[in-house]
Every structure is written in C-alpha cells, then in structure tokens.
Write a structure and sequence with these properties.
The protein has five helices and 35 strands. It is mainly beta. The relative contact order is 0.14.
C-alpha cells in the first residue's frame, strides 16, 4: 500500500460521520488529557505550557489489549517510533528490539528518558531503557514530552521524556479486572488488576504473565510481572505513597537470518521501588521521594556453531538510587515558581561467570574505582502569565556529576493565546547526556575522558480546537543541533569512543482528532524527519490514520500506519524499509462482567524488517476475554 491508498482510506473514513449522522456529543466524552504533570512537576493545563506534550490515557492503551504501552504509543504519538522483532518480547543485547526513537534521537543510546511517576528508569551500565518493563497494567496514562527535558530531569532526557503515570483509584470502592488472551505462534497473555479505595487509603495491585514462541525457531519469550501502589492521606494536605513494580523475562535470540545464532538467551530481572510524601496547600504543592531502579542480567551470547557452545555467561548488576525534592508555589498573581533538588547514585558491575562451574572469570575493563557514580543538581523554573493571552517560561539547572563535571541547562519559551481555543508556542531548550559506564570503562573502544553529549532544540507549535472541542489539530516545527555525540572511530587501527559526532535534524509533526459522533472518533498523525546524519530506527516519514466506533456493547477499531525511509542499516551498506501496517480490534461486552475481544495485526501480511536480519511476522491474531467484578 502506498500514500495514494492511504488517501483513499482517509476519504472513506471522512464519509463515515455523514453516513451515521452527526449525533449530539456529550462534552465529557470529547477531550481528555488536557492536564499533565510531565514538564511542570505539577498538574498543569497544557494550554499554559510552551512545549509539546502528547497524552495517551489508559482506555486507549488498553483498547487493543496489548500488554506493553510502546506499540500503542508508536501509533498515536507523532515523531515517536519503537523497534520490534516479533509478536511479543523486545529482549536485550545483540539482536534485541525495543529501541525508542523520538525526532531522530535514540533511547537505545540513552538519549531519551523513560520515567515511572517522574522517576528515571534506565540500565545503569548501558544507559538505555528496558522496554519489556513498560506494562499497560501499571499505566493510568502516558505523557510524552517532545524535546529536551533536562531542566527538570537531568541526564538522559536530552531528546525527550516518556512518563508513565501509575494507576490509582479515584473513588471509594473496589474494582477487579482480569484479561486473558491467546493467539498466533503459541502466544498467551494474562493480567489481573485489583484496585481499592476506602476513605484516606487507596491501593492498586497487579500481576501479569505472557509468553510466545514467536515466528522463528529459537525466539521464545516468557515474562512475569507485578505492580503495587499504596497511598494514604495521613493528615490534611499531606499524602504518603509507595510504588513498586518488578519484571522478569527470559528471551531467546535466533540471530539474523543470514547468520543464525544457537544458544543465545537472556535472563533479565528489572524492578523499581519509590516512596515519598506529597503536599498540597493550593497555593503551594510539592513532593519529596526516594527511589531505586535495579536490574540483574544474565546473558548467553550464543554461537554460530551449535557444536561449540559458549563456556561463559555475561552478567551485570546495576542500581540507580536517588532522592527527588521539589516545591511549586504561586507567590504572586499569575506566577508559578518551581524549585527542585535531585541526587542520584548509580552503581554498576559487569563480569563473566563460567557456565560449567559458576565461578567468576577475569573481566578486563577500566572500571577501577569508577563503578559508583554520583550526580547532584538544583534547578528553578518560573512561569508567569503576563496577560490573559501571554505566558512566559524560563528555567535553569546546574547539574554536577563526579566524573563528567558541571553542566548548566537553560530553557525558555512562551505561549500566545490569540483566541480562546488556540495556542502558539515557542521554546528553546537544552538537553544533555553523561557518558555511560559502558562507553567509558567496558570493552576495547572505551575511553575514560569522554564528555557529556549536548543538544539544543528550537520549536514552534500551534494548537487549535473547534466545535466545542470535538475537532482539534496541532502542528509542530522543530530544529535540533547536537554536538559531542559519542561515536566509535578507528584511531591508530583500533576502535575508540570519542566525542566527535553531531546531529542536525529538522522536522514537522501534525495531528488531527475528531469526535465525529457519540459513536465514532477519528484521529490521524504524521511526522516528517530530515536528518543531516542518518540514524537507524528513525523513519523519515510516519503516518497513522485510525478510527474507533462504539455502540451499545460493541467496540471496534481500525488503524493504518505507513512507514517510509526507515534505515535498518547505515554506512556503505545502507538499507531503507517502506511498509504499511493495518491493525484492527473488536470487542463485545457479552455480560456486565464479561467481555470478548479479538485483535489482528499486519492484516496485509506485509514482508518487512525493523531490525536488520530479523523479518517481522506476517498476519497475526489474538483473542481473549476480559472479566470485571
């Protein structure tokens, strides 16, 4: 399918409201997600923020009964793309998927930060997100900030932030949900969530299990997960909370089709725990919290010769622990001042063990004395309404890292509201990323004197709503300049990591949402990316067109995503992929407590690759039941 075919589908969908009839629409059903916490450290109307934030609520995330949030975000957030290699399971190490890319900036190299409730989540040695940990069951909504967010979140937020806001119970009562499914290639998924709220106390407990054989031999995946949230309003204006989740998965890697691997497996455990107190006095609010994000990894890198198996496991342990303190205050009319303090302690250790005996083997690296790293920062951000139609925002962060030194991070922008239903935004923001332990101390290319990567983004955007919010559109224009990018080059015939790279990206993003009737909603988003220097997994064009229909006990959704100019290889053997994905889902609420669902993906049975050498499955199907009581 090409762009002409997508145009035909767009025309057909645009005619559906006429055929159905423009029924009256309840205003409560029209627009959700106008209040966000990412980018401001407090619940804020997006009309007063100078930067672009996309919000995807739990209903949308759960609509197709996908266990992971990333597939849905790839469809609904312009400029965002996530790599995959099978029906389920991203995995880690060579041949893994789950790379998150926003505007040509890659989470795989640690340049894009994932948060859970505002707390950073990444592998302490390698610095990248662990995509199999981001389960739908824990998310009340996901907020994606397009562009640098280092002012508030420090290193690794140089290209943007994905913040998973955990689920909480809003009203007194109890709610239990169970989701079960099975489908192609021996795939199974099971999830249970129970929420309780009784006066000042609330809790959410969830667990999941998933497994698949996937569509290639030696590509099995199995995962277990759990989530817990407890909160208690112990006095007026103060609330204590505890959050925790843990994921363990076993993933196999068959290698590229042209050079298969045997015995390549990974056993990974990731978890995080946070606890803290929130305060809210109206004119001022804030939080103090402590958190830890930890991982344990055991990897068999496999071999190309099945008769000569590996004799050792690669192992690593990492921990990112920190304290976050911030307070917002409205000290005078139209103002909002945020003062914050962050401390992080990052620990990592990488080593090998004998498969036969379990003993620790010699692991040559340059870590001596540097496996512990500390980072401390203070920041302030001031937002001021100058008039009913104008808001200014400016902030500054000073970040000190015991290896990389000090980094100043400025940010500024404004919002103009020329009409009540439209906003013009402009921002200039800096992001940075400290070099990882891998880049400085592990493997032959490592270099101990690396400096932080730095990025500046300039963005102008416009948002407009019509018809009492039933129809809205937005457009973003941005320019990115980055330097000190760490890359591996050959010096005196040997590979070495150096700060010699640069990035110059320009792009445009657009989206339209239309609540056509009480039963039908349509959305489309498109992004064009021009990269001076090509990178893998950043499509030059991504377009999505989706429709959802609800009536009575029925719900149905159809989505078409077009990808063009997706580099799977760069350099002298550069290769680009172009493909079209058609996905659909339908559900029927058979009884009040029982729903049935069916999901189909790649319904055109397209042949394509996202990771080089890893062909994606053709048409796949899943079906299951949802229980509520």
């Amino acid at each position: 399918m090409n762009y002409h075919h997508i145009g035909k589908i767009t025309c057909l969908l645009s005619l559906l409201p006429t055929a159905i009839g423009a029924a009256p629409i309840d205003s409560a059903d029209v627009r959700l997600g106008d209040v966000v916490v990412t980018g401001s450290r407090e619940a804020t109307d997006v009309r007063h923020l100078p930067y672009t934030v996309s919000v995807v609520g739990h209903d949308k995330l759960a609509e197709g009964d996908r266990p992971n949030v990333l597939s849905t975000l790839t469809e609904l957030v312009p400029g965002l793309f996530t790599t995959s290699r099978g029906m389920m399971g991203y995995g880690v190490s060579t041949g893994a998927a789950g790379g998150i890319n926003l505007r040509g900036i890659s989470g795989g190299s640690g340049q894009l930060l994932v948060l859970i409730d505002g707390h950073p989540q990444y592998q302490g040695i390698y610095g990248h997100p662990l995509s199999d940990s981001y389960q739908t069951m824990i998310a009340d909504r996901v907020e994606v900030l397009h562009g640098p967010a280092s002012l508030l979140y420090g290193s690794n937020a140089m290209g943007g932030v994905i913040n998973i806001v955990p689920r909480t119970m809003k009203q007194d009562g109890s709610n239990t949900e169970v989701r079960l499914g099975a489908g192609s290639w021996g795939t199974m998924q099971a999830e249970a969530t129970q929420q309780v709220k009784a006066g000042r106390f609330s809790s959410t407990v969830a667990a999941n299990y998933a497994r698949t054989d996937n569509h290639r031999p030696r590509m099995g995946f199995e995962q277990y997960g759990g989530y817990l949230h407890l909160s208690y309003d112990f006095v007026a204006h103060w609330k204590a909370f505890v959050d925790g989740d843990i994921t363990h998965f076993n993933a196999a890697n068959p290698g590229p089709v042209s050079s298969p691997l045997y015995g390549a497996k990974a056993w990974i455990t990731r978890g995080n725990v946070s606890l803290g107190v929130d305060n809210d006095y109206g004119w001022t609010n804030g939080r103090i919290s402590a958190y830890t994000n930890f991982g344990r990894h055991k990897i068999n890198d496999g071999t190309s010769d099945p008769t000569s198996p590996q004799s050792r496991y690669f192992r690593s342990k990492d921990n990112l622990a920190g304290i976050s303190l911030y307070q917002n205050a409205r000290l005078w009319q139209g103002s909002r001042l945020t003062l914050g303090f962050d401390y992080q302690h990052i620990y990592g250790r990488a080593y090998y063990t004998s498969i036969a005996t379990g003993e620790i083997l010699d692991t040559p690296n340059k870590q001596s004395g540097h496996s512990h790293r500390n980072e401390v920062a203070g920041y302030l951000d001031l937002r001021q309404d100058i008039a009913s139609w104008l808001t200014l925002d400016a902030g500054l962060r000073l970040d000190y890292h015991n290896i990389s030194g000090s980094e100043w991070v400025p940010q500024g922008g404004f919002v103009i509201r020329p009409i009540e239903t439209g906003e013009l935004r402009a921002t200039a923001s800096k992001g940075f990323r400290n070099p990882t332990m891998r880049e400085m101390y592990l493997y032959p290319p490592s270099t101990t004197d690396l400096r932080p990567e730095r990025l500046m983004q300039y963005e102008v955007s416009w948002r407009h709503r019509f018809m009492q919010g039933r129809l809205s559109y937005g457009i973003n224009l941005y320019h990115i300049d980055a330097d000190n990018i760490i890359e591996t080059v050959r010096i005196d015939g040997r590979p070495r990591n150096v700060n010699s790279g640069s990035l110059h990206n320009n792009g445009i993003e657009a989206e339209v949402r239309w609540q056509a009737t009480n039963h039908l909603s349509l959305s489309t988003n498109h992004s064009l990316l021009h990269m001076h220097r090509k990178v893998i997994a950043a499509p030059e064009y991504k377009g999505y067109l989706g429709g959802e229909w609800r009536q009575g006990k029925w719900q149905a959704g159809l989505g078409v995503m077009q990808i063009a100019g997706l580099y799977t290889l760069i350099g002298t053997n550069a290769h680009k992929e172009n493909y079209t994905m058609v996905n659909a889902n339908v559900s029927y609420q058979f009884l009040k407590a029982l729903g049935l669902w069916l999901r189909g993906e790649n319904l055109l049975a397209q042949r394509y690759e996202i990771n080089a050498g890893f062909p994606m499955p053709r048409a796949t199907f899943m079906a299951g039941v949802n229980l509520k009581f």
